[in-house]
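protien #1 (seq + structre)
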Amino acid sequence: MSVITFRRAIVPASWPGGLGRPQVGSFDPQVQDRSWRYVPETYEEVCDWALVVKQGDDESSVWSTRALVYHPLVLPSNMRAQLRPVVLVLQGFLGDFNISPLGNWDKRDRSAPGAVQYLTLESGGVEDVFRAQVQALQHIRAFIRAKVGAELDEEVDLGDAIMLERSVFTKVRASGTQLPAVHLSHASDPGGRARKLGLEWRVDHVVQTGARRENGQNMAVAPTSFRQGDFVEVGVFAEIQYGRRQRRTGSIIKFAMKEVVRLWTAEDAEVSQLLRIENIHPSEEQVVQSGQLTGQMRAALSGGGS
C-alpha cells in the first residue's frame, strides 16, 4: 500500500493528537523520493509513478475493466516480475457509510448493477491534512482520465469530504477470467436473493473490516461495529471501467474500499479534537474525572505508544 504525504511528512503523522497512530503503522515517516510507498504530490509525478492497464480478456463485453498499477521503475527490482495494483491509504472521520456485503441493494434483480457499498470520509475540521488526500485523489483521477477517456458521470465536488464506492455485484461473463463468488451467509443474504442471481451476477468480494490494537495488529471486527465519527484508515483502489452509454464513450472511475480499519472510536476521536481546538493538555487526574478518555488515547496524547 502507498501513503499520501503532506509537506514531506506522511498523513498519518500529520493529524493532531496522534489520531493517525503513525507509531503503530507500517510506513517510515521519512518520505523517500520515487518510491511506490509514497504517493507523489503532483500530477506530473503521478504520470511517472503509475500505469493504467487493461484487465480481463472478455472481448464480447460492452464494458472493459482497467486497473491502476505501479510503474515498474518505482518498484524494487525483486517486485517487477508482475503488475501490482495501486492501493492507497486514506484516513479520516467516518461519515455516512454502508459496508455490509450487499451494500445498498434493495433485493430487486434489476437493481443489482447499481448496488454499491459506500463510505464517506470527513476532515473533522483538520482541513489542511485532509485536503492533501483530496488533492492526491484528484491527481490520480486526472491521470486515469488522460489514459482512458473522459468520465461519463460528472464528478461531484464534496468539498470537505471524500466519497468512496465499490460495486456490490460483478457481471458473470461467458468467457474470460473472473474471481469466484464469496460465501454469503443467511445473515448477510436473508432469503438467499443474492445467491439466486448467481448465473447473471455474483458477489466476488467483501470489504475487510478491522480495529487496530495497541500492538499495531489489526483485529477482525464486524462491519456493524463501526459508527459515524469513528476515526478510520481505509485501503483504497481505483475501480475503472471503459465503454459506451447513451451514445457516449468514456470511463467510469470510482475509488473503492478494500479494507476499513478503526483507529479510534468516535468518543475517543471527539475528545482528541476537543483538546486540539481548546489547546489544552489536562492532567491525568482531569482526564480520569472526565470519564471520556481511554487508556489508549491518554497514551497518545502524552506521547506514549499505542
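ok now protien #2
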Amino acid sequence: MADRAVASGDDRISALPLDLRLRLLSLLPADEAVRSSELSREWRGLWKEMRRLCLRFVGLERFETAEGFNKFVNHLIVLRGHLPLDKFKIDVRESETAEQYPYVNLWIQYALICKVRVLDVFCEALAEDPIQLTVPLVSERLTTLNFTDVDFDCSALVDSKLSLDFSGCPLLKSLSMQRCSIWVHKISSKSLERLRIASSSSFNPLSRTWISAPSLISVELSNFFGEAPVLESMPFLQEAFIRLDMYDEGCCVGINPGVQKCGDQSCERC
C-alpha cells in the first residue's frame, strides 16, 4: 500500500489534520520546523502557528557560529509575530561565554509577550559565565519555570532588599533551578506548589536565604553550595527531599552521624 501511494504521488503527510501536523512540528527544533515550509504549499508558513518553540544551539551541529544562531532566532520571532505560546525553550550548549548570546533576555521577553505557560532556559555550557536574567518576569499565564545555569544575583526580579520576588507571576506553580547562582536574602511566591533547587546551585555563603512559599506541596533542596536556606511555614507540604553535604556552608563539620548534632549548645548550625 505504501508503494502504491508513492507511485501515485499521494502526499499523505500533508493530508493529516492541521492539529496533528502542528504537533509533529512542535517535536522539532525551531530551525528544522521552519525548513518544513519547503515540503509543499500546505506546509508553507505552518511553523508560525506552533504553540511550542525550541531554540536549540548545540555547538556547530546546525549553525556555523553563535552569531548565525542569534540572527536566525531574531528573524524567526519577527516573522512569527505574537501568536500565543504554550512552551518556549532556549537550549544553548557547548559555548564559551554568555556574551555569545546577547539576546537571551530579549527572547525570554518575547515568550512572555506571547503569554507562554512553560518557560525553559537551559544554558548548560555557560556554567563559568552564566546568563544573567535581566528581564522582569511578569505574566498572568506563566505556570512553570525551569532554569539551568542562570545568574539571579543581578536579576530584574531582585528588589532593593535582595528578595527574589515572583509575585508578578500569580499562576506560577513549578520552579526548578539547577546550577544557578541565587545570592539573595529571600525567595517568595504565594502560588508556588513545587520547588526544586539542586545540581550545584549556590546560595550566599555569608547569610541564609529565606524561602516564603506557603502553598508548597513539594520541595527539593540538594547538592547546593553556600548557607542552607530557611523554610518558612508550609502548611500544605506533602513531600520534601533535603540533602546537606558535609561541605555545605550550612552544615556543621562536627556533626555526629548517629544523632545529627555536634553536641555544642552554642552551635548555630545544629
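The longest helix spans residues 66-80.
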